[in-house]
Amino acid sequence: MDPAFPTCTQKIVIDPVTRVEGHGKVTILLDEAKQVAQARLHIVEFRGFERFIQERPFWEVPVLVQRLCGICPVSHHLAAAKAMDRIVGGENLTPTALKMRRLMHYGQIFQSHALHFFHLCSPDLLFGFDADVAIRNVIGVAAKFPELAVQGVMMRKFGQEIIKATAGKKIHGTGAIPGGVNKNLSIHERDGFLTDLDQMLVWARGALGIARDYTLSNLQMLAPFGSFESSHMSVVRNDGAMDLYDGNLRAIDAQGEKIFDQVDCQDYADCIAEEVRPWSYMKFPFITSLGPERGWYRVGPLARINTADFIDTPEAEAARREFMALTDGKPNNLTMAYHWARMIEGLHAIEKIRDLLLDPDLQGADLVVKGERREEGVGIVEAPRGTLIHHYRVNHQDQVVMANLIVSTTHNNEPMNRAVQKVARDHLSGVEITEGLLNRVEVAIRAYDPCLSCATHALGRMPLTVELLDHAGRVLDTKST
Amino acid sequence: MNERRETLLLLGYGNPGRLDDGLGPALAAQVESLALPGVAVQADYQLCLEDSEAAARHDVVIFADAATSGAEPFSFQRIEPASCLGFSTHALQPEAVLGFAHQLFGARTDGYTLGIRGYAFNGYGESLTDQGRANLTAAVAFVRRVCGQGNFRDLGEVEP
Lengths: 481, 160
What we know:
- The complex is a heterodimer of chains A (481) and B (160).
- Chain A is α+β, with helices and mostly antiparallel strands and 481 residues long.
- Chain A is 42% helix and 18% strand.
- Chain B has one domain: HybD-like (Rossmann fold, 3-Layer(aba) Sandwich).
- Chains A and B meet through helix 4, helix 5 and helix 6 of A and helix 2 and helix 3 of B.
């Protein structure tokens, strides 16, 4: 018997969590009075990708690491390429290389945020948490709001085509190489994107409006939903601006006071450590100076809006100001505000894409630089789901001898667990458990847009089974979708 | 007056980094090199919603994937559009992609699945097993035979 489990309990298992990527399981333990005694998000699959890439030639890594995930391969591609830039001494990229990589990255942000908003979370927002599970999915959205479903598809397609043009392929491209890129953007490719750009801007503004209006209209219900005060961390530019591709690390506490600021990404390990807990394959990172108990933090769209001093594109900056005004300029700690923040970033991404497409440097021919060879490199990007850290050591035979990846979802491990606990205690204690109530737990997890296969460095598949068990492990009820 | 020529999309999907799971993309690469008239080719890691938009632009779509069990060297079956979801809308089944093509884009695209039998999936590596490679060769020959004439309706079935 697991000594961590209280006796005289019922155990509810949401296995796996739906509409997230990878394999997750939620267990909720009820005591005899049907009060929630414990709630945890478990990650139940593990394959050691970091070991797999050891002894491989370092120049293969930016391509290999994309095998981690079919959802955010570009983020892994770029983080690994940035680390390998350091290995070849080529971190000061040519203008063409830097802007091609940025274009690739903003294409990834745009399509990923569109997918999550329109197809993964919109069923909850449009139909309500308690709606019939038969319609509370993207098929229901397609039936009742077909124009939104089509927008989501077309926005995702636009972002994917940007990725294809910059990386060579939509999935698992080769565009970024150590010290640069292997192609530029042709005038023909550029003009194709410019044709669709205005429509994308219109749809991005519309999506932001939906997310903002939903949050403000339901603020009383959403404010306590899975919410708690926390620290936040992201990369920011030297001047404090949001920068999703490059910059230095900044962490703030729940009141907005800086815990650390402008930390060089090469020194991330001085500020962040990882704790292992026996019941999950996913590690628990924490800010070293605060320790494992108090040092956990959030990453991703909400954290990035909270940590940045400003956004350097006008429409997204106006939206950020409106967002921050809700909390009088202090960090916003509403878990469900992730959706609003995510759509601010979606608008920011398409503004950046517009600016980049109009930049003639994208047609430059100077693609690669090299410098003094190093044996160690760290690459960090702000992936759609949050800060993504790739750290490698390479020997004199050009083989990778150490790899450490801290992915966005891993940073959010403790916050997601806290969100699960909060929702479970607020909504599941002392009541008859229904599918709609259980969905609330998933709604809180989905706000983070977790990629659990990334977090465990595995590829997962999962049909949904929800089991209700008593303290002796007997199945009392099973729900499936 | 010339009739509009029918077009076919061959969509090969899977993870080339997971051994025989790469059979779908490998098929896509080989068929693309054949440059069959009227045949467009696309390789994906997994099927996603935007594939429905691509499918809607063609008369016929073939979803080619590795099969973990079933007929050797491959099976080929007609599918119907369906409103079915797997565990996550990050990845869809062929029937769902076809369903979204019909529902969202008003298409009348016909759909088929081509399941190439594979044998090794639980590992990392960009290589195919010998038997998987042989099955791939047979599948490429099949696609060349049924799609090489430019008439894509009623492609028939190869039972699993």
